[in-house]
Design goal:
Number of helices: 6
Radius of gyration: 16 Å
Helix content: 25-40%
Strand content: 15-25%
Structural class: alpha+beta
Largest sheet: 3 strands, mixed
Distance between the termini: 32 Å
Number of strands: 3
Strand order of the largest sheet: 1-2-3
Order of helices and strands: HHHEHHEEH
Protein backbone atom coordinates (compact mmCIF):
# COMPACT_ATOMS: atom_id res chain seq x y z
CA UNK A 1 0.00 0.00 0.00
CA UNK A 2 2.84 2.39 0.71
CA UNK A 3 4.14 2.04 -2.83
CA UNK A 4 0.92 3.59 -4.09
CA UNK A 5 1.09 6.47 -1.64
CA UNK A 6 -1.85 5.21 0.43
CA UNK A 7 -1.62 5.85 4.14
CA UNK A 8 -3.78 3.24 5.91
CA UNK A 9 -4.18 5.35 9.04
CA UNK A 10 -5.43 8.34 7.04
CA UNK A 11 -7.79 6.18 5.00
CA UNK A 12 -9.08 4.44 8.12
CA UNK A 13 -9.80 7.81 9.72
CA UNK A 14 -11.77 8.83 6.61
CA UNK A 15 -13.65 5.53 6.62
CA UNK A 16 -14.64 5.93 10.29
CA UNK A 17 -15.79 9.50 9.63
CA UNK A 18 -17.91 8.44 6.67
CA UNK A 19 -19.55 5.37 8.24
CA UNK A 20 -19.95 6.93 11.68
CA UNK A 21 -21.84 4.65 14.07
CA UNK A 22 -21.86 1.85 11.49
CA UNK A 23 -18.07 1.46 11.75
CA UNK A 24 -16.69 -1.03 14.27
CA UNK A 25 -13.97 1.39 15.36
CA UNK A 26 -16.26 4.35 16.07
CA UNK A 27 -15.80 3.90 19.81
CA UNK A 28 -14.20 1.57 22.31
CA UNK A 29 -17.68 0.37 23.37
CA UNK A 30 -18.68 -0.60 19.83
CA UNK A 31 -15.33 -2.31 19.27
CA UNK A 32 -15.79 -4.36 22.47
CA UNK A 33 -19.36 -5.26 21.46
CA UNK A 34 -18.13 -6.43 18.06
CA UNK A 35 -15.49 -8.63 19.69
CA UNK A 36 -18.14 -10.23 21.95
CA UNK A 37 -20.46 -10.89 19.01
CA UNK A 38 -17.62 -12.54 17.12
CA UNK A 39 -17.08 -14.92 20.03
CA UNK A 40 -20.70 -16.13 19.69
CA UNK A 41 -21.03 -16.17 15.90
CA UNK A 42 -19.50 -18.68 13.59
CA UNK A 43 -17.79 -17.03 10.66
CA UNK A 44 -17.19 -18.92 7.46
CA UNK A 45 -14.87 -17.58 4.80
CA UNK A 46 -16.19 -18.75 1.45
CA UNK A 47 -14.32 -17.59 -1.65
CA UNK A 48 -16.70 -18.16 -4.52
CA UNK A 49 -16.90 -17.56 -8.24
CA UNK A 50 -20.33 -15.93 -8.47
CA UNK A 51 -20.39 -16.52 -12.23
CA UNK A 52 -20.11 -20.31 -11.77
CA UNK A 53 -23.65 -21.69 -11.30
CA UNK A 54 -22.39 -25.02 -10.01
CA UNK A 55 -20.26 -23.38 -7.30
CA UNK A 56 -23.10 -21.09 -6.25
CA UNK A 57 -25.49 -24.06 -6.01
CA UNK A 58 -22.98 -26.06 -3.95
CA UNK A 59 -22.60 -23.25 -1.43
CA UNK A 60 -26.35 -22.61 -1.31
CA UNK A 61 -27.01 -26.30 -0.70
CA UNK A 62 -24.35 -26.56 2.03
CA UNK A 63 -25.74 -23.50 3.81
CA UNK A 64 -29.34 -24.75 3.63
CA UNK A 65 -28.33 -28.25 4.78
CA UNK A 66 -26.76 -26.65 7.86
CA UNK A 67 -29.66 -24.26 8.41
CA UNK A 68 -27.29 -21.37 7.89
CA UNK A 69 -27.81 -18.07 6.17
CA UNK A 70 -25.63 -15.25 4.98
CA UNK A 71 -25.80 -12.31 7.36
CA UNK A 72 -22.79 -10.39 6.03
CA UNK A 73 -21.13 -10.22 2.63
CA UNK A 74 -18.25 -8.11 1.43
CA UNK A 75 -19.04 -7.51 -2.23
CA UNK A 76 -16.63 -4.65 -2.73
CA UNK A 77 -15.41 -4.51 -6.33
CA UNK A 78 -17.45 -7.60 -7.25
CA UNK A 79 -19.84 -6.11 -9.79
CA UNK A 80 -17.06 -4.97 -12.11
CA UNK A 81 -15.86 -8.59 -12.37
CA UNK A 82 -19.21 -10.38 -12.54
CA UNK A 83 -21.60 -7.84 -14.04
CA UNK A 84 -25.23 -8.76 -14.43
CA UNK A 85 -24.65 -12.41 -13.48
CA UNK A 86 -25.02 -11.28 -9.86
CA UNK A 87 -28.74 -10.87 -10.47
CA UNK A 88 -28.92 -14.59 -11.17
CA UNK A 89 -26.47 -15.94 -8.61
CA UNK A 90 -27.07 -13.92 -5.43
CA UNK A 91 -30.82 -14.70 -5.12
CA UNK A 92 -29.94 -18.43 -5.14
CA UNK A 93 -28.00 -18.01 -1.89
CA UNK A 94 -29.79 -18.00 1.48
CA UNK A 95 -29.31 -14.38 2.51
CA UNK A 96 -30.90 -13.07 5.68
CA UNK A 97 -33.36 -10.32 4.71
CA UNK A 98 -31.33 -7.82 6.72
CA UNK A 99 -27.89 -9.09 5.67
CA UNK A 100 -25.26 -6.38 5.78
CA UNK A 101 -23.60 -6.02 2.40
CA UNK A 102 -20.52 -3.91 1.79
CA UNK A 103 -20.18 -2.62 -1.75
CA UNK A 104 -17.99 -0.42 -3.88
CA UNK A 105 -16.49 -0.47 -7.31
CA UNK A 106 -13.04 0.56 -8.44
CA UNK A 107 -14.47 1.08 -11.92
CA UNK A 108 -16.35 4.14 -10.70
CA UNK A 109 -13.81 5.47 -8.21
CA UNK A 110 -11.78 8.56 -8.69
CA UNK A 111 -8.03 7.95 -8.99
CA UNK A 112 -7.63 8.19 -5.21
CA UNK A 113 -10.33 5.99 -3.68
CA UNK A 114 -12.27 7.34 -0.77
CA UNK A 115 -14.80 5.93 1.66
CA UNK A 116 -17.66 7.88 0.11
CA UNK A 117 -17.51 5.54 -2.87
CA UNK A 118 -18.20 2.58 -0.62
CA UNK A 119 -21.48 1.75 0.99
CA UNK A 120 -23.40 -0.44 3.38
CA UNK A 121 -26.73 -1.89 2.28
CA UNK A 122 -29.10 -4.17 4.14
CA UNK A 123 -30.48 -7.06 2.12
CA UNK A 124 -29.50 -8.59 -1.19
CA UNK A 125 -32.59 -7.07 -2.84
CA UNK A 126 -31.34 -3.57 -2.06
CA UNK A 127 -27.89 -4.46 -3.37
CA UNK A 128 -29.27 -5.70 -6.69
CA UNK A 129 -31.36 -2.56 -7.37
Amino acid sequence: MRNKGIKPKGYLTEEIRFFGGEHFLTSEEIFELCKKVLERKRLVFAPLDLTNNSSVEQLASALRDNRAEITFANLTNVYEHTGHSLGQSLPRLPFNQQAIILHSSMAYNRPKACAEEMGIIRGVGQYLR
